[in-house]
Amino acid sequence: MAEDERSIFTRIIAGEIPADVVFDGERVIAFRDINPQAPVHLLVVPKTEKYRNVTELAAGDPELLAEIVSVAQRLADEQTNGEYRLIFNTGASSGQTVFHVHAHLLGGGTDGALSEGTLGKL
Ligand code: AMP
Questions:
Q1: What does the alpha-carbon distance between residue 109 and residue 114 come to, in Å, rounded to a whole number?
Q2: Which residue puts its alpha carbon closest to atom 3 of ligand 1?
Q3: What residue ranges do the domains of the chain occupy?
Q4: CA dist 101 to 29, 63, 86, 114, 116, Å?
Q5: Pocket of ligand 1 (CB under 6 A)
Q6: Whose CA is nearest to atom 17 of ligand 1?
Q7: Which of 26, 29, 40, 59 has the lowest tally of Cβ within 10 angstroms?
Q8: Taking a C-beta distance cutoff of 8 angstroms, is the pair 46, 27 a contact?
Q9: pLDDT, average across residues 55-74
Q10: Confidence (pTM)
Q11: Closest approach atom of ligand 1 to CA 35
């Protein structure tokens, strides 16, 4: 794959772009979102960029999807009260900008809880 075709997350995984990495496993990495939308906002990302979105990931490698959920819970246990919101934007009109599947892990952290009814705000 030509260098400029690789996703920004692949370049973070390769160490070419700095990121605040909070988990680095064999198949999954997690780092802080550069534009946080909640007190805790992490991106949980498979190291492969083979899957563009969660539908493709679920069909192609359900174990890897399960690992992402497991890592999300582990990080929520560390960084929030263990409760969290997990979002997979799927498609540009849902807000997806990076077509390398990733989960947004949102949590209230120590600054308070996420509010009910805040999903889907424009
Ligand atoms: P999405 O819009 O669902 O595709 O999510 C992409 C996310 O990646 C956005 O929330 C961005 O803020 C985040 N992002 C983009 N570049 C970086 C970066 N270099 N480091 C950390 N997060 C990033």
A1: 9
A2: 96
A3: 3-109
A4: 12, 14, 13, 24, 26
A5: 8, 17, 19, 31, 33-35, 43, 89, 95-98
A6: 34
A7: 26
A8: yes
A9: 98
A10: 0.95
A11: 12
